[in-house]
Design goal:
Order of helices and strands: HEEEEHEEHHEEEHEEEH
Oligomer: single chain
Distance between the termini: 51 Å
Strand content: 15-25%
Number of helices: 6
Structural class: alpha+beta
Amino acid sequence: MKARPKLIPSAWSESPVDRRSVLLGAAAVGGFLTLHLGAVAYARGPVGSGGRLTPQAFIDAFQRVNGIHRGFRRNHAKGVSVTGYFESNGNGAELSKAAVFRRGRTTVVGRFSLPGGNPTVADTAKANRGLALAFGYPESGQWRTAMLNIPVFTVNSPQGFYDQLLASKPVGDTGKPDPEAMAQFMAAHPETARATKVIKAAPPTSGFADSTYRGLSAFLFVSATGKVTPVRWALVPMQPVSAPGAPGRGPNWMFDNLITAIRKNPLRWRLMLTVGEPQDNLTDATQAWPPERRVIDAGTVVLDAVDSERRGNARDINFDPLVLPDGIQPSDDPLLTTRSAVYAASFRRRAGESGSMPAVETSEVSQ
């Protein structure tokens, strides 16, 4: 595999590339991307790991914090499957030669979710909301992305994520993390303290349907002429946005509202591409880019059907952020390779498990 082009500020608009998107390998069940996990190991790490973090160490940590829930994802366990399409207006083709940005329609399979490995957790308005999408699934040349409704990510390194995961373990009868453990984590990770202030300044909306979802990490878009451009993307809701109200009835009230909304009318988001400048950080997802950056409206994501997770839908898709089409390449953000490897380990683990029922049963929501 050819090396990724090294970009320098004076050459960002001139650097040609000629290679396929990274890591598109053998697709197995549900489009699973096979990865050589031995290639991903990180400094420091848990006791007993030989001073290195591995995908298995992350899986063990998720299970230590959330318990073992067979057949479910080790993170974002609670979710529903959605389908729809992306209507490209052709504007994105300026930045990327990926087929998804040509004018026209591309099928989309996706998943709304809440963070954490416990599928029975009750919905809360303050919890981060996730939206993962696979554009063009199950065809070749797919684009998969897993997004969150926060403006920046909370950590910028694999070790930071691991430390935060362990510090977040609920203790006692409170259901909340140990304040002392969390304080120690924050002291050791000032980048998280800074990111938390940014996140708190952007309060959540009323639910899944009116949230803005961001990819958070930077990627490199490659045009038909070989021009390389750093990009971050976001889905901005076309539904009216409102502040959270009183929680609904039952533990799945936020999902129930989503299911009802999609059944009434398709939900729509604008796919907005933010163009980075040479001085923008490409490797730290805790740092926001300046608001004055150029933004391109690339088209509309429409989600028009929702279903419980079951065999054959989004339940069986690994939303690996490194499943990329020709025309999109990863940046050097260390979180990307980490997520890819840990997602793969989680997929393999749950693919060999059976007996789980959907965390949210859409048929139980009244029409």
